[in-house]
Amino acid sequence: MSDTSTGNGKVVVNRSMSLDGFIAGPGHAMNWIFDFIAPDAFPEIAAATGAMLIGRRTYEVARRQKEAAEPGGKEYGGGWSGPVFVLTHRSPEPPDAANMFLTGDIGEAVATARGAAGGKNLEILGADVASQCLRRGLVDEILVYVLPVLLGDGIRFSSPGLSRIDLEPISSTRSGVVTILRFRVRK
Questions:
Q1: Where do the H-state alpha helices sit in 26-172?
Q2: What is the reported pLDDT for 76?
Q3: Is residue 144 in a domain?
Q4: Of 49, 146, 151, 161, which residue has the fewest beta carbons closer than 10 angstroms?
């Protein structure tokens, strides 16, 4: 198991979530998030991020959203640009030069992405990738933006079968209609 407490950057699961616990709506829809949060709303989070590790579904949804948005829009957040690693069982054809595709062990994927983060935080996006990281004890913190909406259905915050993980509250703040919760994962 990788020791995530060493080095400057942390491994942070970063999520927007409806009040009823969904991080994506039916059909993996995530556009509802932007009804409450502008893509560049939290520049301090973007500044602290050195790389992202995302799942294939998150990659596909972000790619579709980018294609539907104005040309030049950012896929994963307004003020952030940097390496994005996509954990997948198969790379796309043709390959996407803007993202790096990784296959294999989640611990190796986290180590690769952390190495590219340049001492800053590695942000984890995607329900399955985050659950794999949590199961393996690779996560330092969880950052949740709770949005004032009930979706009723969709992709839950954590995958089924995730065992109990104790968290230590670090902060709770409000920015407009968004409640921002930060937790440290107890190891």
A1: 43-48, 56-68, 106-116, 127-135
A2: 52
A3: yes
A4: 161
Q: Return the CATH number at 105.
A: 3.40.430.10
What is the rounded CA–CA span in Å between residue 6 and residue 10? 8
Q: Flag whether 4 is in a domain.
A: no
* Tokens describing residue 125: 């996006």
Task: Identify whether 3 is part of a domain.
Answer: no
pLDDT > 90 fraction of the chain, expressed in percent and rounded: 61
Torsion, Cα 91 77 115 103, to 10 degrees, reads: -20
Structural domain count, the chain:
1
In a domain, 22, yes or no: yes
Question: Which residues form the domain of 180?
Answer: 11-185
104-112: Cβ within 8 A, 24+ apart = 106/132, 106/133, 106/136, 106/138, 107/1, 107/2, 107/136, 107/138, 109/53, 109/85, 110/2, 110/4, 110/11, 110/53, 110/138, 111/2, 112/85
pLDDT at 184: 98
User: Looking at residues 7-17, what average pLDDT do you find?
Assistant: 91
